[in-house]
Amino acid sequence: xxxxxxxxQTDFDGWRKAARALALNDVKPSDVSWRVxxxxxxxxxxxAPPLEPPRGTFNVPARFVELxxxxxxxxxxxRFALLYRLLWRLRTHxxxxxxxxxxxxxxxxxxxxxxxxxxxxxxxxxxxxxxxREQKSHFVxxxxxxxxxxxxxxxxxxxxxxxxxWSILTPDLCAHWDGHVIxxxxxxxxxxxxxxxxxxxxxxxxxxxxxxxxxxKAQTMQKEMSRNNxxxxxEASSIKPLASNDKASDMPRKHADDLETLREEAADxxxxxLYKNATQTVFGEGRQTARIILVGEQPGDKEDLAGxxxxxxxxxxxxxxxxxxxxxxxxxYVTNAVKHFKFVPRGKIRLHQKPNTPEIKACRQxxxxxxxxxxxxxxxxxxxxxxxxxxxxxxPINKNRGRxxxxxxxxxxxxxxxxxxxLRLPDADAKARxxxxxxxxxxxxxDVLRKSAHAA
Length: 456
Prior knowledge:
By secondary structure, the chain is α/β, with parallel strands linked by helices. The chain has helices at 12-24, 62-71, 79-90, 103-125, 150-160, 200-210, 218-224, 227-230, 236-244, 259-266, 301-306, 313-325, 357-374, 384-391, 397-400, 419-424, 428-455, and strands spanning 2-6, 32-36, 129-131, 138-142, 166-169, 173-177, 182-186, 292-296, 333-336, 343-346, 349-352, 378-382, 404-406, 412-416. It has 17 helices and 14 strands. Helix 13 (357-374) packs across helix 14. The termini are far apart.
């Protein structure tokens, strides 16, 4: 009997090297025992003579290697033996993986799918809590994976939350991001996980505002999410009282917050790092009965100091275009996708910086709550950042410009350029031409309103 000891639970390179040597020495799967270094050793187990250095080579389908890299992350202790058995059989049956009914193939495929599902759950269910304040803040989350997926899932969080230092603690392995590189440390006990932070109550209020009892699928939730994962969500404690509310059946799809309440909550927003250098949160402005919401990118220097949206040069350009299009600014609601000023200091000047995707996503809850509070007939997304917030994905301007688009909630949206784009055009003829197109887009918005009013 050959006893193979791997370095850890996810040691794919060690398994691959050992499996290759075993196969080239014609060692049958029944003559191999696999375990991990930190597992209890087998006492008094007979040992086989050492393997000869492997000579020669053999090929297996690339699909098997891809499948093995994922399936080896499953918690099934027999996975190493199962993978070697498949490898052994593939040497003489190259098309074995095409036989979906084969027991070994079916089992390893199911294991790989389970790992991928667990990876997806981690992407969706991890909730960071802020530890510390201001420049010393760090974001920490606790998660209990079903399989050994931490190393597999960590790069997703590095991409999504690239600008904030974070740690994800699990019983198996902990992942850490310092803004440059991902590192890993041994797992920890749940007692070391952070408690509720100051943003959690804001999140619970937001969840309550979008909660729709008619769409609650308790059985599906229990099927897709283990109790360990469920209990770690801050909104979990809110679902039962929301679902059992006597008035739940009469609740609209989105509860209408009061704009003043939203403005007060947003003043303390710490969902991304932009608040640290901005003067203040610049919330939307306008009537709660407005039939149009104009969404820009983010406040600029003038807006950051004044605390109001579109009061600088871009705002003046917007006011002029609205007037020419026949829209009274006093009747619309004006806001931004991102509500803190992002900039780079250059002496006494603060140069605007375009918000990135994590910052847009972090701030989208405020736009969604503004939308739910106002319930407009039309949303005008001005610029790429605004379009990404309104549609929830990157949306090209020119491809979607000039027509009203239906959103999932029944609201209509119109895509156009941001007024600051017009200010940046160096050529006078181009600036005049693009300004006319911008006014034309706003006239489309005015026409949509007229038609909706007539229909009503």
